[in-house]
Amino acid sequence: MLNGLLTFRVETGLFNLVRTGQIVMELIRPIDYQLSRLMVVIGGALADACFSIPSVVALGVLFLHPEAPASTERALVFGVSVAIGFLIKFLLSYVTAALSIWTENIVGLVWLRSAITDIFSGAVVPLTFLPVVVRQVAQWSPFQAVIYIPLAIYLGHGPPISDLLVQCAWAAGLWVMAKVLWSQSLRRLTVLGG
């Protein structure tokens, strides 16, 4: 369920804007493009959540009998962690989207980013079940901060504050990386031959 809420199509949307030349209209607006994309994605995720969360939770409680969070504090920290995980997944998608200016087709990059994110975030298989080498790679990557860390907090594994600090560090680093890459990509942008 968590991975489903963190799914959006930042890359293909930006690629289509670049391909059609409509990116120019987005760039002349007096607002930071990265921040505006984040707000659009948040709006879409909130709308999706209003419809999907109640039914998924009801079905989950009815058929799966999930565990409650380890404590009330963990439940609150879990909510914060999910929000940071959402931001990190957005930024990973935005970095891929910025690369769309450098390519003729973004589909391969989107599939690659999606596969890597799903595997190294713990969305497909919990990281604890992966071979040691793969798990160590995942633990040194931003991907674990998307799904694995929020779920570890929910289940009461590990110190939640250090997990949140890891997420915040990745979010800050990816925000800067996305800004720099977007700035470099705009220098290469050519719309309608100009």
UniProtKB/TrEMBL annotation:
Q: Which Pfam families match?
A: ABC2_membrane_6
Q: What keywords is this UniProt entry annotated with?
A: Membrane, Transmembrane, Transmembrane helix
Higher taxonomy: Bacteria, Pseudomonadati, Pseudomonadota, Gammaproteobacteria, Acidiferrobacterales
List the transmembrane segments: 38-64, 76-102, 108-133
Q: Which domain of life is it from?
A: Bacteria
> Which InterPro entries does this chain map to?
ABC-2_transporter-like
Keyword Calcium in the entry? The reply is no
User: What is the organism field in this record?
Assistant: Acidiferrobacter thiooxydans
Protein name in the entry: ABC transporter permease
Task: Note whether Membrane occurs among the keywords.
Answer: yes
